[in-house]
Design a protein that fits this description.
The chain has about 280 residues and is α/β, with parallel strands linked by helices. It contains 11 helices and 9 strands. The chain starts with 6 loop residues before the first helix and ends with a strand.
Length: about 280
């Protein structure tokens, strides 16, 4: 096990470092983003919808500019970091647990000429290797769910974010009124016993040094996004199977269907949270 990684984080690290997972996400998502998109049509390219999420989140952070220091926790292929660096000129630290994803991210940073603005760091968001008050913005997309101690992640965000800074994030969440037991297939798939919820994030962050600026609810995007991924996987299965095992593909299809069903039934929610640190 990697040093200082909890069991839940190490499980996620091993998964995203696997050849099957790395090739699947790289092929189907396109190697830039691994998060829920904001779709304008059911057949829209995943890249376009995913990029729209990034742009929308950035628009909701006041004052982003070349002087801003941004920390992206759970940064995947560092696609959001590249968008922020190119669009706003800011310096971004992209911290992520998968060494394979990080290597792909570093390569893309070099290819796209932004490696001087982005530091890709191997690490866990449960123990951030930074001093207090180091960043103007902490950013995260669909990553915190992988922690077995989400409160610890939020405490670390609070610690490294300066007063007046912004915490902007998305996370697949269970709805606040989700019935007991209905999400067990999803918990089993991600090797955890719960998801966060809007109420959880509000209680924890407002109990620290944060005030809620906005929550832009896009719960309908859960079923839309995972449905789009399912469609693409089915259409391109033979192509994907050249680099991803058939067993992984079948497990992925079942997992995607659980997310689709949970979204359609209202058990899951997703959207853009913006909090500002006041203390």
């Amino acid at each position: 096990m990697a040093a200082n990684y909890t069991a839940a984080v190490e499980t996620a690290r091993e998964y995203y470092n696997s050849e099957d997972a790395d090739n699947f996400y790289y092929i189907v998502w396109g190697g830039e983003d691994i998060h829920v998109g904001l779709y304008q049509s059911a057949d829209e390219p995943v890249y376009d919808a995913s990029r729209r999420t990034v742009a929308r989140m950035a628009e909701k952070v006041s004052g982003l500019n070349a002087k801003s220091r941004v920390l992206d926790i759970g940064s995947g292929y560092a696609g959001s970091a590249r968008y922020l660096a190119k669009t706003y000129g800011c310096h971004v630290t992209a911290l992520n647990l998968s060494e394979k994803e990080n290597e792909r991210g570093r390569q893309k940073n070099r290819e796209q000429g932004v490696d001087h603005l982005i530091d890709v760091v191997d690490g866990s968001f449960e123990e951030l290797p930074y001093e207090a008050d180091s960043f103007d913005v902490v950013w995260s997309q669909d990553a915190i769910l992988h922690s077995g101690d989400r409160r610890r992640v939020l405490q670390e965000v609070d610690r490294v974010l300066r007063r007046g800074g912004y915490f902007v994030f998305t996370d697949p969440m269970q709805s606040d009124d989700c019935p007991e037991g209905v999400l067990e297939p999803i918990y089993e798939r991600i090797h955890l016993d719960s998801l966060g919820s809007p109420g959880f994030y509000r209680r924890e962050l407002e109990g620290m040094d944060f005030e809620e600026v906005a929550f832009e609810d896009h719960s309908d995007m859960i079923a839309a996004h995972y449905g789009r991924i399912y469609q693409l996987l089915t259409e391109r299965e033979d192509e994907v199977a050249q680099r991803v095992s058939r067993g992984y593909i079948e497990r992925m299809k079942k997992g995607l269907q659980h997310w689709i069903d949970g979204g359609r039934k209202g058990y899951l929610t997703w959207g853009i949270f913006v909090f500002r640190k006041t203390g």
